[in-house]
Write a structure and sequence with these properties.
alpha+beta; about 210 residues; five-stranded antiparallel sheet
């Protein structure tokens, strides 16, 4: 099993990265919460990974923070939630926000994540409530120890918008929805990185 990768980031097209490790390029799927924290192309990156094998595919998932990987592994054990849906859930909201939604029975927030209907949201709450009961106490020390990554490079305005809309579409939002989310953010915020634009777009759908 591959549990960690350290190498050079050579491609970043959300949600997929390619990391060069001693001449071998690893394709890694990452949630948007990890994408926001990645360094620029050509810089070194360290990711914790989860290797998933199914009848039809073998996929490597990567995470900046250990708590994100831990929650991903908890999510894929929920009935009806596979790795791709788990990645989408972790992209739709921050890890701690997801835990909060589960503990507060906040179905309305969960169903705003693409691919999560009411029945799936209810199942997430039922199956995760006990498992996440002590989440904050267990993960607070780890969060304090994890270092922040180097911020990514700025893009032109048009490239930034295109990259953000493509990332949102890859998560399951319709192109018109993605465009509307991005436009709404740009009206009220000064943004210079696509990662920030994606984060704010997703945050705009979540309750305050």
């Amino acid at each position: 099993m591959i549990g960690r990768l350290k190498g050079t980031l050579i491609e970043k097209k959300a949600p997929q990265l390619i990391i060069d490790v001693n001449g071998v390029g690893y394709e890694v799927q990452v949630p948007m919460t990890t994408l926001y924290q990645l360094p620029a192309i050509g810089h070194e990156v360290v990711l914790l990974t989860h290797f998933s094998v199914s009848e039809n595919s073998q996929m490597l998932f990567g995470f900046i923070a250990s708590k994100d990987r831990d929650l991903f592994r908890i999510l894929i054990k929920v009935s009806g939630v596979g790795p791709k849906m788990a990645l989408g859930i972790l992209s739709g909201m921050e890890t701690d926000q997801l835990v909060s939604c589960v503990m507060q029975d906040n179905i309305s927030a969960l169903v705003k994540v693409p691919g999560v209907g009411k029945k799936t949201a209810e199942r997430l709450i039922i199956e995760l409530r006990d498992k996440l009961k002590n989440w904050e106490q267990l993960n607070a020390p780890l969060a304090a120890m994890e270092a922040a990554s180097t911020p990514g490079a700025s893009l032109s305005a048009s490239d930034m918008v295109a990259e953000a809309e493509a990332a949102l579409t890859s998560l399951g939002y319709k192109p018109t929805e993605a465009s509307k989310m991005v436009s709404g953010v740009l009206k009220n915020n000064s943004v210079s990185r696509s990662e920030d634009l994606i984060r704010l777009s997703l945050k705009s759908l979540m309750p305050a």
